[in-house]
Amino acid sequence: MTPKFKIGDNVFMARYDKVENFVTCPDCGGSKRIRVLLHDDTEISIACGGCDPGGYEPPTGRIKQYAYTVFASPYTVTGVKITSDDVSYELNNFGGAAYWSADKKDLFATVPEAVACGEIQKLAHEADENKRLMAKTKDAKSWAWNATYHRQCIKRLERDLEYHRSKVQICAAKANKEKAA
User: Taking the model in full, what pTM does it have?
Assistant: First the structure.
């Protein structure tokens, strides 16, 4: 193996940073609700689990996604390590205290070469991000589970509502009797 660069050469390494942005939820289309068709053809609407941020917050209709920007970081070669398999370089970030190590394939002589490599790396990373984007927030729970859970909550709340309505009627009747007396 022969080294591509020598000690003291200025080189560039591709980097990409993520920038947070929000996109419309692919499950609910931004409506924050999902319609579920039950086995008896009853259609109910439940909160979207895809854009649910968790905790006590309601669904937002949007999900967080990251956009990546590519740039080339400049380094100076401060050491060369040659093995039987490959060549690696020790790098110094122009007088900074941080030292880096990089393989021959990751270093370039010019900024455009480094940026072109960074674009390829960025596209591969974005493809992985998009796979995650189309997945549910909680993979362990199905939409059917969500529908069942919310239906049970509705039934419990309807029972509670009926109980409290009956209590209000009793209180109102007692209050009327006290006024009459």
Answer: 0.48
